[in-house]
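TASK: fixed-backbone design
INPUT:
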């Protein structure tokens, strides 16, 4: 049974797993470092369904990261293993990161996507002109190098 990990930084083992899954999904991963995503959330598979012991975790079956850029947050790399899709895991991770962003005092959560705009729009995210975002966020590697200008820029006020 899947369980949500507490917010943490990426450790070396998780980083390797995340990079491999993102590469396979053709999503950007080149700039991910243990320190680059201070709020990483994962969903792990647990054989017993009861374990929340993150020292003996099962494999990651879903994950997402959050970067802070001033008062704006950048949602990064929301991914769910294909055989676990359709179970609400992406929505769970998204809501958890929205809650974390509020606790950090962020006023808006932003993301770039080439393939999941409909999913995010159904959850309250709206197309956003990139020029309406802070210079700090627009200067991020995600905006400057990794995602094409054709990617949908979506945001949600928190």
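OUTPUT:
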């Amino acid at each position: 049974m899947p369980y949500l990990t507490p917010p943490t930084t990426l450790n070396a083992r998780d980083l390797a797993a995340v990079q491999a899954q993102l590469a396979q999904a053709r999503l950007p991963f080149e700039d991910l470092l243990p320190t680059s995503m201070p709020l990483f959330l994962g969903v792990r598979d647990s054989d017993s369904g009861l374990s929340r012991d993150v020292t003996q975790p099962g494999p990651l079956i879903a994950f997402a990261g959050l970067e802070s850029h001033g008062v704006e947050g950048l949602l990064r790399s929301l991914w769910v293993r294909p055989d676990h899709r359709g179970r609400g895991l992406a929505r769970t991770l998204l809501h958890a990161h929205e809650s974390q962003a509020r606790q950090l005092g962020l006023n808006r959560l932003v993301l770039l996507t080439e393939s999941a705009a409909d999913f995010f729009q159904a959850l309250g995210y709206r197309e956003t002109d990139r020029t309406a975002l802070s210079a700090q966020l627009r200067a991020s590697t995600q905006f400057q190098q990794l995602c094409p200008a054709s990617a949908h820029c979506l945001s949600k006020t928190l």
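COMMENT: The two ends are 30 Å apart (CA to CA).
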